[in-house]
Amino acid sequence: MDGNNEPRSFEKIQEGIKQYRMRNWDKALSEFLSKSTENFDNEERLELIYYLGLCYTKLGKYEEALNYLEQVVILGTDILRIYQCRMTLAYIYVITKRVKMAEFELNRLKNSGLESPLIYNTLAYAAWAQKQNRTAIELYEKTLEIDTNNPTAMNGMGYILADSGLDIVRGLRLCRKAVDARPQCAAYLDSLGWAYYKYGEAAEARTWLRRALELAPNEKDIQRHFKVVTGEPL
After folding, report:
1. How far apart are CA 103 and CA 209, in angstroms?
2. How far apart (Å, rounded) are the C-alpha atoms in residues 225 and 222?
3. DSSP type of residue 130
4. Dihedral sign computed on CA atoms, order 156, 160, 161, 163
5. pTM as predicted
6. Domains of the chain with CATH codes
7. Angular region, 68: left φ>0, alpha ψ -120 to 50, beta rest
8. What span, in angstroms and rounded, lies between the C-alpha atoms of 50 and 47?
9. What is the DSSP letter of 34?
10. Which one of 56, 86, 129, 155 has the lowest number of neighbouring Cβ atoms within 10 Å?
């Protein structure tokens, strides 16, 4: 912020920011990397670092992203931006199967009082990735205490309940509600199809899994579920 409390424009990197907002990740990254920071002040340099971290994340270049996002967390003073970067770090750690590190970032956020459905959902996913199904369910329940119709939590908990056999009926109901909320989400359609399969309704399972596969034909989990349920080649 400057003296009149208006956000800075960061003119030196405006073109990169514009390309980023247009989802032109490669162009944005090239624009940011072309900038010499010799004449940047500390705030401009940190803004550049922030956008470099986001670009590398969007492009799936996670090790490069970690380097920049960690700098924002260490050097930054904007609480909301630090929150965003910690959440992005946690996402990267989950994607790259460094689940303990993801939990570390998320627990730091939670313990600082910044609780949110996103934190609990990501912690739940991390627990599920470590085969801690009951812990994952408890965390999804916390999300639903905050946001009773959170589709991510309904889908995640529904899948675990059905897949593990802990409560297939409730799992099926939750997966159905998630699909009602986001009917074009392939992951949710896949969960619903798998829940129907676990419930013993193979015909219904095939219907939903086929829809999921049409939307995301290259997703390995959907392919696996479809093959198990139908026995058909992909």
Report:
1. 31
2. 5
3. T
4. positive
5. 0.68
6. 9-76 (1.25.40)
7. alpha
8. 5
9. T
10. 129
* pLDDT band for position 152 (cuts 50, 70, 90): very high
How far apart CA 178 and CA 174 sit, in angstroms, is: 6
The residue behind tokens 């600082």 is 112
Q: Tokens 């199809």 label which residue?
A: 193
* Whole-number Å distance between alpha carbons of 208 and 190: 7
What pLDDT is recorded for position 8?
66
Residue 196 contacts residue 176 (beta carbons within 8 Å): no
* Stronger pLDDT, 114 or 32, i.e. the higher one: 32
Contact 222, 233 (CB under 8 A): no
Helix boundaries (H) for the chain: 14-21, 25-33, 42-58, 62-75, 79-95, 99-111, 117-129, 133-146, 151-164, 168-181, 186-199, 202-215, 220-230
Are residues 107 and 122 in contact, defined by beta-carbon separation less than 8 angstroms? no
